[in-house]
Amino acid sequence: MSDTQLCTCVHAANPYLPMNMVIQRVVDETDDRTIKSFDLAFVHSEDGGEYSSRGEYSSPRFSYVPGQFCELSIFGQGEAPFGIASSPTEKGFVRFTVKKAGVVTSKLHSLKPGDNIGLRGPLGNHFPLEFMRGKNIVVIGGGFAFTTLRSLIVYLLESGERDQFGKITVIYGARTPGLLMYQQDLAAWEARDDIEMVQTIDVAVPGWTRRVGFVPNVTEQVAPTAANSVAIICGPPIMIRFTLPVMTKLGFQKEQIYTSLENRMKCGIGKCGRCNVGNKYVCLDGPVFSMAELAGLPPEY
Ligand SMILES: Cc1cc2nc3c(=O)[nH]c(=O)nc-3n(C[C@H](O)[C@H](O)[C@H](O)COP(=O)(O)OP(=O)(O)OC[C@H]3O[C@@H](n4cnc5c(N)ncnc54)[C@H](O)[C@@H]3O)c2cc1C
Ligand code: FES
């Protein structure tokens, strides 16, 4: 048996073994340089799979859906979970956008193209694409939690299935213009007529011509229809806390609203009990939950 065959078999048997990835590209996403995107490629091509004629990226080992996450490991430092920021429709790389927070993320921020890291995944559930088909989609994001929302928006627009979804409204806010991530994507989405892109910052600054105000207030002004709609909301807890009553006021039911939790994790595969909320493992049953599901759980998130 060759090394390559052995490698694949060992991975398949042991979910704790990371795949070997090489950093292809590093991009500063914000002007304060605390958030970087890392485009990763598989060192062993059999890990990475291939693309279908429709451009969908799949492999028995790594086939993902927007909303899922991975554990990234830095040799000698440890492992941490990160949402997948690329869409399965994007070829040749898997993107993660990481805020410098502590041990793993600081080391990750010091790495360069050509450096190697480990990846376990994809892990967890994903945004409810089947439930979303035929409905209007409202995507609401704040700060750096926009990562998996980027994956979702790119997927909705680029998978060749745009006509299966109704109106798409995106509301994305940050404290300042320089803290809005994915500036090229935002500009491209703003220029399209099949998505309503609303950007907002907390306080007016010279040269800013878009909205000013907190995400909950702007959501109320934009007033997306609740009729036949699904809302996906990811952001800092305070943003979510103040946005939920606005959604209720607009007529959204708990069953129509989804969010993604970021509880502390260790194994990422439902074994260690580190991430549970009531009887749910966030790493396995989530990280994506409807507000109806969360209403039945203790407030441990
Ligand atoms: C499903 C999921 C998806 C995530 N996606 C992303 C992403 O796309 N981009 C991103 O930048 N981060 C993401 N995170 C958060 C990220 O995993 C943590 O910031 C990471 O663990 C920090 O690792 P570290 O070793 O650098 O920090 P540490 O050295 O472990 O900690 C640094 C500081 O952050 C605190 N901390 C660490 N993790 C958490 C947590 N989960 N909740 C509250 N406080 C915490 C610690 O107490 C400490 O104060 C995600 C988390 C989850 C569970
Ligand atoms: S992180 Fe171990 S059970 Fe979820």
Which helices and strands appear, and what pairs or packs with what?
Layout: H1 3-13, E1 19-28, E2 35-42, H2 45-48, E3 50-51, E4 57-58, E5 69-74, E6 78-83, E7 94-99, H3 103-110, E8 116-123, H4 129-132, E9 136-142, H5 147-158, E10 168-174, H6 183-191, E11 196-201, E12 211-212, H7 215-222, E13 229-234, H8 237-250, E14 257-260, E15 276-277, E16 280-281, E17 288-290, H9 291-295
Parallel strand pairs: 9-10, 9-13, 10-11, 11-12, 13-14
Antiparallel strand pairs: 1-2, 1-8, 2-7, 3-4, 5-6, 5-8, 14-17, 15-16
The chain binds flavin-adenine dinucleotide and FE2/S2 (inorganic) cluster.
Give a brief outline of the structure.
25% of the residues lie in helices and 29% in strands. It is an alpha/beta fold and 301 residues long.
What overall geometry do the principal axes of the alpha carbons give?
Answer: globular
Structural class: alpha/beta
- Report the portion of residues in β strands: 25-35%
Please compute the radius of gyration using only Cα atoms.
Answer: 19 Å
* Chemical compounds bound to the protein: flavin-adenine dinucleotide, FE2/S2 (inorganic) cluster
Total of DSSP H or I helical runs spanning 4+ residues: 9
**Number of DSSP strands?**
17
